[in-house]
Write a structure and sequence with these properties.
single chain, 233 residues, mainly beta, four-stranded mixed sheet
């Protein structure tokens, strides 16, 4: 039977197939190449069908420290999500999330006539909301721990990869013995730069495999991505 691995849980779907969200199980914003992804068990399959999914996202740039968030569309096909952080004013208010269509509005909490909602509280409220949490995944942006108080944010749409000519490609490496990695036949999913889903079959594969990511471009490129893998006998 397939083994549980740090990159994801392999779950058998039928006699000749398994499914596993490996490497990047949930959409994440990638700011650098991943030269050696997390290895996962492929000992009982011959080929891998790999999907590279590029998502729209927003990385906030709020005034202050430890208060920026990554907000990523869960579905690459949804490309019209907007996010607003509203300061309601007044002495006090309760943090709340509302969704109309694909527009997410966060009303910030206040106490003693000042905003008091931290980034950690805002992301938790978004992820816990029955509708917003299905549309997006919110997390602390790199270099932020969520302890900072957020500020108001005008309505902002999620968008695709940022930077100058950003590109991303993935390669599947596989291991036939206990120490040597080689590129699985099938080459790569190369030089993608638009939101969408890209598919390719790699193989044959050995007893372990991993997905390596190369991020290209200049101007501090950022890409929100996830992967989905199906193994075949």
């Amino acid at each position: 039977m397939p083994r549980q691995n740090p990159g994801g849980t392999v779950r058998r779907r039928s006699a000749d197939r398994f499914r596993s969200d490996v490497q990047l199980a949930a959409p994440q914003v990638v700011a650098a190449s991943i030269a050696a992804g997390t290895a996962f068990d492929t000992s009982d399959v011959e080929t891998l069908s790999v999907e590279l999914r590029l998502h729209e996202f927003l990385r906030t740039a709020l005034t202050g420290t430890n208060n920026d968030l990554d907000i990523i569309a869960r579905d690459p096909a949804v490309t019209d999500i907007t996010v607003t952080f509203t300061d309601p004013g007044g002495v006090s208010s309760t943090l709340a999330v509302a969704v109309t269509g694909h527009d997410i509005v966060v009303t910030l909490g206040r106490a003693a006539s000042a905003i008091v909602s931290t980034a950690a509280q805002v992301l938790a409220a978004i992820n816990a909301h029955s509708v917003a949490g299905e549309l997006v995944r919110a997390s602390n942006a790199a270099g932020n721990d969520g302890t900072g108080v957020v500020t108001a944010l005008a309505q902002t749409g999620l968008a695709g990869p940022t930077g100058t000519t950003p590109t991303i490609d993935i390669v599947v490496e596989t291991m036939a013995d206990t120490s040597h990695w080689y590129t699985a036949p099938g080459s790569a999913i190369p030089q993608q730069n638009a939101v969408g889903v890209y598919r390719k079959v790699f193989g044959p594969v050995g007893w372990q495999s991993r997905i390596n990511v190369t991020l290209g471009g200049t101007g501090s490129p950022l890409v929100a991505m996830s992967t989905y893998v199906i193994g075949h006998r």
